[in-house]
Amino acid sequence: MPENIISHDAVALAQRLVRFSSLNPPGDEKPCIEFLAQLLAGMGFSVETHEFAPGRPSVIARLHGLPGLKPLAFTGHLDVVPVGAAKWTFPPFDGVIVDGLLHGRGACDMKSGVAAFVSAAARLLKTGVSLRRGLVFVLTAGEETGCQGAFDLARRNVLGEAELLVVAEPTSNQPVVAHKGSLRVGVTARGRTAHSSMPLEGESAISKIVAWISRLESHRFEKEHPLLGSMTAVTTTISGGQNINSVPDIARFTADFRTLPDDDHGSILVWLQELFGPEAQLEVITDFSGFATDPDHPAIVPLLAILADGSGAPPTPLGAPYFTDASALVHGFGHVAAVVIGPGHPAQCHKTDEHCPMSEIERANGIYEALMRHLCT
């Protein structure tokens, strides 16, 4: 199918994107992102590319509207996680469609969402309408390994402002108006080595981190968010000791804190130091904030109305425990209102035999096009 035609068919475009093996690691997004950049340029978008590392581009594509009106922004990442060791029913990069499902790595997370908003713009522009409000598409690399592309764009201060940011991650086309952040911390203890037959001559670093982990896991976080619940903390890795017959003089563990949007990560680190004591050496590994947009925010109300018209009932705004590129882009766009909504069920992400229903891709395509018409024309 020619590229000028494939852009108008969300399912066909999603199928084409799945056929790019844009694995991360190692970071093979470039061919897929360049394909979309050329497609968008052919649709009239101005396209700029920024690399956070050699051969790792992210793209900002713009269609300008009238001065004084902030654009409507959509975002999606093109990298996918490895396919794993288990055998797939269908080859993971063939983009096979069977029984109404698009199969392949990235079909759900999240190439179908990207295809749906690119196709929505193509269908809208085909009608010849002029845009009052502009469109901005942000296509990122490196999301699966820490939102690297999105944070790079935010640091460069190249995004500008937006009226609304739509993150096309899979939500079964339900509106997620808040998600948690993540603060990942490494904690190191140091002791004194000795022969294991004379433990009183040494000081076990492992015993120290065992006590610290116990304190952390017995703590109960009381503050609640109406959509997200409370902050959580999980010990994720642990290491220590070099041989079986020595008292270990160094040990380390990592913890992943899933935080609420208004949590101050600096204050959490101060609290951790007090919880563990001065001997604990803390290292911040990643620091991603959450976001929350009021469901009554004027920028989101039109989307909720579109969803209600399509289903015959008002949608229920949701929260999510994971994070997305919104952690970087909400701030990068000047604290823009945001919503995560896209085709595919979140439980399909990263699984063997990942798939996305064609009906959900088409539904997302319709939602996005209706939102573009409402806000931009």
Automatic annotation (TrEMBL):
Pathway annotation from the record: Amino-acid biosynthesis; L-lysine biosynthesis via DAP pathway; LL-2,6-diaminopimelate from (S)-tetrahydrodipicolinate (succinylase route): step 3/3
Domain of life, per lineage: Bacteria
Name this protein carries in UniProt: Probable succinyl-diaminopimelate desuccinylase
NCBIfam families for the chain: DapE-ArgE (TIGR01910)
Molecular-function annotations in GO: acetylornithine deacetylase activity; metal ion binding; succinyl-diaminopimelate desuccinylase activity
GO BP terms, alphabetized: L-arginine biosynthetic process; lysine biosynthetic process via diaminopimelate
Alphabetical list of CDD domains matching this protein: M20_ArgE_DapE-like
UniProt family annotation: Belongs to the peptidase M20A family.
Peptidase M20 dimerisation domain mapped to chain residues: 177-277
PANTHER family, A to Z: ACETYLORNITHINE DEACETYLASE (PTHR43808), N-ACETYL-L-CITRULLINE DEACETYLASE (PTHR43808:SF31)
Reaction catalysis annotation: N-succinyl-(2S,6S)-2,6-diaminopimelate + H2O = (2S,6S)-2,6-diaminopimelate + succinate
Classification via Pfam families: M20_dimer (PF07687), Peptidase_M20 (PF01546)
EC number: 3.5.1.18
Keyword annotations from UniProtKB, A to Z: Cobalt, Hydrolase, Metal-binding, Zinc
This protein's record includes keyword Lipid biosynthesis: no
Cofactor: Zn(2+); Co(2+)
